From TrEMBL:
InterPro entries recorded: MCP (IPR002067), MCP_dom_sf (IPR023395), MCP_transmembrane (IPR018108), Mito_Metabolite_Transporter (IPR050391)
Organism: Hydrodamalis gigas (Steller's sea cow)
Any single Gene Ontology cellular-component annotation: mitochondrial inner membrane
Coiled-coil stretches noted in the UniProt entry, renumbered to this chain: none
Name the record gives this protein: Uncoupling protein 2
Family in the record: Belongs to the mitochondrial carrier (TC 2.A.29) family.
Record keywords: Membrane, Mitochondrion, Mitochondrion inner membrane, Repeat, Transmembrane, Transmembrane helix, Transport
GO terms, biological process: transmembrane transport
Gene name as annotated: UCP2
Segments annotated as Solcar repeats: 11-106, 114-203, 212-297
Primary location recorded for the protein, binned into one broad class: mitochondrion
PROSITE patterns on file: SOLCAR
Length: 309
């Protein structure tokens, strides 16, 4: 068997909290170029404004977007906003993923059996709570990914500069721009991602089709990534457009969605579906496999340290 063996000692809430944040950061490091390509394709076609990204550049497909960015802006452009992205994951994933089991137990009042309703409630709760904690990091990440280096000066020179500039030009509320669509998106994403992973994993184990090991985690994570992309893609596009918009361009997230529908049609809500799936699918696989292994490794380390000599 590859990886750490499962132990009889369940992981503590602290282990889950730290493990989730660390696993999410590792997944982000590996899949960040796909996320940047997704953002560029999502904002393509929006109205011209001071926050537009490369209006003259047309992106075609995932690979085409990545190659165009490398050719016109250099390879480092694929990692625009990485620092804010890692800040986001360490605070965001720790809450929405690391606290999921604890909140699920709260809703089931400690019962071993968790129904679909309890899982959905737990996913919605931790997803919304995570946004309340990490929204400013998400705004900065999206702004960095959207800005282009070619053909003019960059809007933000560093992560710290981005936080300061947004707060100075748009007020404190600028750092919380898009909170409503982000709460909706992450409640949906968390439910689709964690609940689907939970259900697929439970079904595989109960049917004795596979053991609680890497193949089980890989299969469950891949299925969760696909379901999440299908369900959350429209909200994700609106969230990205609204966060990246100029001050006053849209009066609300609903106005942003309505403008997209009127000017670009329903297909705009599924713009960049393929990079979204490639990113979410690969991110889920890396994150969940790493998370499961980290939980076992950290639990084993804590148990061995507490064990008497």
């Amino acid at each position: 068997m590859v990886g750490f063996k499962a132990t009889d000692v369940p992981p503590t809430a602290t282990v889950k909290f730290l493990g989730a944040g660390t696993a999410a950061c590792i997944a982000d490091l590996i899949t960040f170029p796909l996320d940047t390509a997704k953002v560029r394709m999502q904002i393509q076609g929006e109205s011209k404004g001071p926050v537009q990204a490369m209006a003259s550049t047309q992106y075609r497909g995932v690979l085409g977007t990545i190659l165009t960015m490398v050719r016109t802006e250099g390879p480092r452009s694929l990692y625009n906003g990485l620092v804010a992205g890692l800040q986001r994951q360490m605070s965001f994933a720790s809450v929405r993923i690391g606290l999921y089991d604890s909140v699920k137990q709260f809703y089931t009042k400690g019962s071993e059996h968790a129904g679909i309703g309890s899982r959905l409630l737990a996913g919605s709760t931790t997803g919304a709570l995570a946004v309340a904690v990490a929204q400013p990091t998400d705004v900065v990440k999206v702004r960095f990914q959207a800005q282009a280096r070619a053909g003019g000066g960059r809007r933000y020179q560093s992560t710290v500069d981005a936080y300061k500039t947004i707060a100075r030009e748009e007020g404190f509320q600028g750092l919380w721009k898009g909170t409503s669509p982000n709460v909706a998106r992450n409640a949906i994403v968390n439910c689709a991602e964690l609940v689907t992973y939970d259900l697929i994993k439970d079904a595989l184990l109960k049917a004795n089709l596979i053991t609680d090991d890497l193949p089980c985690h890989f299969t469950s994570a891949f299925g969760a990534g696909f379901c999440t992309t299908v369900i959350a893609s429209p909200v994700d596009v609106v969230k990205t457009r609204y966060m990246n918009s100029a001050l006053g361009q849209y009066s609300s997230a609903g106005h942003c969605a309505l403008t997209m529908l009127q000017k670009e049609g329903p297909q705009a809500f599924f713009r960049s579906f393929m990079p979204s799936f490639l990113r979410l699918g690969s991110w889920n696989v890396v994150m969940f496999v790493t998370y499961e292994q980290l939980k076992r490794a950290l639990t084993a380390a804590c148990t061995s340290r507490e064990a008497p000599f």
